[in-house]
Write a structure and sequence with these properties.
Layout: E1 2-7, E2 13-20, E3 24-26, H1 39-45, E4 50-54, H2 72-88, H3 96-99, H4 101-110
Parallel strand pairs: 3-4
Antiparallel strand pairs: 1-2, 2-4
Helix pairs in contact: 2-4
Length: 121
């Protein structure tokens, strides 16, 4: 997997790797880990999907500049834009789910620890 860099509008740099071919599947790692969390499943998924494995800001090869707020709302904004740019940009017709990602991710991040299910309004 080759290291790539994506830059958000506010200057945030997100490092990520890509592998495979097919519909895009973005795998976000857990807090305090890196994209390597997904290495055990990469070989099983690359024949069906184009995997996008980012290192979240403050993790792995992504930047850790103190000028960003690193709030939950900021993370949702940056990672939603990242997913839209990396997963949907190469798709000829983004699915309904890809357009709903910002809403779904916001709900997921806001309810982390309070519910095992995410609902989209």
């Amino acid at each position: 997997m080759r290291l790539r860099l994506w830059h958000a509008a506010d200057g945030t740099r997100v490092a990520y790797r890509e592998a495979g071919a097919g519909p895009a599947l973005v795998l976000l790692h857990s807090c305090l880990l890196t994209h390597r969390e997904w290495e055990p499943v990469v070989a099983h998924l690359t024949h069906r999907f184009r995997l996008v494995l980012p290192d979240l800001p403050l993790h792995g090869d992504s930047e850790d500049r103190p000028r960003h707020p690193y709030t939950l709302a900021w993370y949702v904004e940056v990672m939603s834009a990242f997913c839209e740019a990396t997963a949907c940009a190469r798709s000829r017709s983004p699915s309904r789910h890809s357009r709903d990602f910002p809403t779904a991710s916001s709900a997921s991040w806001r309810t982390r620890g309070t519910s095992s299910r995410t609902t989209t309004p």
